[in-house]
Amino acid sequence: MIEIWAVGGYSEIGSKNMTAVKVDDEVIIMDMGYNVEKIVNYEGREGEEITKLSYKQMLKMDAVPNDTQLKEEWGEKVKAIVIGHGHLDHCGAVRLLAKRYKQAPIIATPFTLEIINKGLEGKKLYNKTIALNPSSKYKISNKITIELINMTHSTLQTVAIAIHTPYGAVLYTNDFKLDNTPVLGKKPDYEALKKVGENCIAQISDCTTVDKGGHTPSETLAKEMLKDILLRYQNRDNGIIVTTFSSHIPRLSSLLKLAEQIGREPVFIGRSLFNYLEAAKNTNLFSTNAKIAGFVRQRIKLLSQINKNREKYMIICTGNQGEPNAILSRIVNDETPYRMQDDDVVIFSCKVIPTPTSVANREILERKLKGKNIRIFKDVHVSGHASKADHRELLQILKPKHFIPTHGGMDKLVVAAEIARTMGYQLNENVHLLQDGKKLVIQ
Question: What is the pLDDT of residues 391-434, one digit of tens each?
């Protein structure tokens, strides 16, 4: 018998992703993520890093999945914790929750494990860790084998997690896009997906942009969009600042090459940028000789140097959501040695995360930028999530007996269910709209 427990991530976007799959008397946990909005709210309001809070404090503020009942009912049966990729809404809570299942090893790609270790901030990880490359398998028991299938997303070494069981495979695709021409890394492993599709009992699928028509464009399009803007300013004296998601190593790689193409020295400024770039370097996936200022003294020194010769540099920094303590906000608020001037350029190579906090913070930041007569370019970005046609394509490949959309509010889940309906699936029969805390018995 297979049971699926939707612990977190089934009721909203970007929040507390965590799923448990029970195969007879053995349990696999997939993902342990933060509620990102709660983190941003706390760090902005309190000015304190979230890593200093305990599990109980984080649970009280609804920043981590509530696994209390899971721990009581299935805790001793957990055989492994598998993490799909290195975004905080999927791996951020590992440092707090994994030790509640100390007998279970943490399985993830080398890059994702590096991100998890960076988040420990010197604290101990009690669980054994197993680094598994994409397109690899690991036998958990006589009944369960884990397979990490290479996928594309907006960070490196993102994988779909296949749990192979005597009843068929459960495939967890949370998050993904189908990018056949990625800037870094390989395209999705379609052959492995087709193999899983020969006996896929259930697909648990990310629905962040399921309501967008067509296919999600390749990351190569974002590179061309950035190139078009930056070439216009290559011979001007303006300051140029680009902000994007720190975890988006492919985008950072493109920015590095484009800065060199327009004759400017790229510099990376911000703690999270430092962490992700270090993780990529330590796993031999991407490295750069560009200056990276992750700590306060380094930032002050580098920004003071850039301020004297702004036409020679391109700043790549944190703060794309308008977070009050991020570098871009500090620059705008004149809290650094770098002073903005009329007609400086700020490029937001990102989307605004659709949460009240992010929307409000970005509005405040943009208002301040306009007040300084800054040239603003927004949404110079392509999504890391699958659109409607991509979801249909993956369903056609996998042909799962049961389809379980996740990673979205009910409005997103309903759209995913409608796509499945047009392909012969039926709601509440083999399409299941779970919410946080709910269980589903499949066989």
Answer: 999 999 999 999 999 998 899 999 999 999 999 999 999 999 99
Q: Which residues contact 48 (CB under 8 A, 6 or more apart)?
A: 42
Q: Are 19 and 7 in contact (CB under 8 A)?
A: yes
Enumerate the domain spans of the chain. Answer: 2-215+384-441, 219-377
Amino acid occupying residue 401 = K
| pLDDT value at 44 more than 60 | no
Is-cis flag, bond preceding 175, omega within 30? yes
CATH class of 2-215+384-441: alpha beta
Q: Are domains 2-215+384-441 and 219-377 of this chain identical in fold?
A: no
- Give the three-class secondary structure for 349: strand
User: Do the strands 18-23 and 2-8 form a parallel or antiparallel pair, or are they unpaired?
Assistant: antiparallel
Tens digit of pLDDT for each residue in 210-262?
Answer: 999 999 999 999 999 999 999 988 778 899 999 999 999 999 999 999 999 99
At 46 the pLDDT is 45
Task: Report if pTM > 0.90.
Answer: yes
Other beta carbons within 10 Å of 375: 17
Tokens of 408: 């979205």
Contact present, 28 and 140 (Cβ < 8 Å):
yes
Alpha-carbon distances of 34 from 55, 84, 92, 214, rounded to whole Å = 11, 14, 5, 30
Q: Which of 116, 95, 92, 115 has the alpha carbon at shortest distance from 42? A: 92
Cα distances (Å, whole numbers) of residue 386 to 47, 55, 218, 237, 256 = 35, 33, 11, 39, 26
Work out the number of other CB atoms within 10 angstroms of the CB of residue 191: 10
Alpha-carbon distance 243 to 376, whole Å? 11
Q: Looking at residue 49, what is its pLDDT?
A: 66
How many whole angstroms from its chain centre is CA 241?
23
Question: Residue 410: helix, strand or coil by DSSP?
Answer: helix
In sequence order, which residues have a C-beta less than 8 Å from that of residue 214 and are 6 or more positions away? 387, 388, 389
Kindly report, residue by residue over 246-257, the tens digit of the pLDDT: 999 999 999 999
Q: Which two structure tokens, joined as six digits, stand for 325?
A: 């303590």
What number of residues does the chain have?
A: 443
Residue 350 predicted with pLDDT over 70: yes
Residue 120 host element (H or E): none
What is d(CA 395, CA 230) in angstroms, rounded to the nearest whole number? Answer: 39
Q: Looking at the domain 219-377, which fold is it?
A: Rossmann fold (3.40.50)
